[in-house]
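--- STAGE predict ---
source: upstream dedup step, 1 unique chain passed
mode: sequence only
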Amino acid sequence: MQAWRVHRNGEPSEVMRLEETDRPTPGDGQVLIEVLAANINFPDALLCRGQYQVRPPLPFTPGVEICGRTADGRRVLATPALPNGGFAEYVVADEAALLPAPDALDDAEAAALHIGYQTGWFGLHRRAHLQAGETLLVHAAAGGVGSAAVQLGKAAGATVIGVVGGSEKAKIATELGCDLVIDRRSEDIVAAVKEATGGRGADVVYDPVGGEAYATSVKCIAFEGRVVVVGFASGAIPTPALNHALVKNYSILGLHWGLYNTKDPAAVRACHDELTRLAAQGVIKPLISERVELAGAAVAVQRVADGMSTGRIVVLPSGAAR
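--- STAGE serialize ---
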């Protein structure tokens, strides 16, 4: 089969190589899956760079999230077992962790549902306890992670403020349903949030960016507000001033969604049931900006790594991209 493999760490476009290799062999409790679509996530770039919290042995295939088909014909969502990731024609995954792909979504949309939307749901509901009527501030609102949080925030009845970089992304965030869109390149985020909230600030901040995004957020956080730290796509990990959190009375909440797979797998399945219901109602729908064939995966991963993408880029089998 064909698979993208990384033999040394570095930038995705430089270290990913499309090769012929053997199909992976399922171990105990695992199943072989034909890949129908593999969603690109920022961690795929971190894996290539050797900067992710999990460092598979070299060589490995990146791709942490797929929609695929099992030998008995089930259409499923899976997180492939590294080092044999999803940018390949076949993967293996733990049978017990497979989730049914929602009928309301096509293969590319289904591949983009699992990690981003699970992260959004756990961040907004389990960690921040977002309530209807509250104001949610979402950084990188036109990106893959941010767009999921925007849709989930609207589904929860929140007023959603999206922060983006550039007019093209501002248009996308508006189409996603943001009540207010702030272009960080040309507008003062703190002033705009305070004006929109009558000086109160945002009740919940969803931050997959870190760096300056975090620093800005705590300047416009509401009394008893909650900052959900999801990731550091900017490459800069902030150092919170805890005296500031004390004086302004806000909470800083970390979210490592992957831990729920081992600590509380029942909650992951319950969340998937809820996401499936919301997808069937048309309330959520992954924003797929591009569908690329397997041969284009390395270039596409690099674009995500460089912050040049909107929504999700999904890798499809050869001949399947439209």
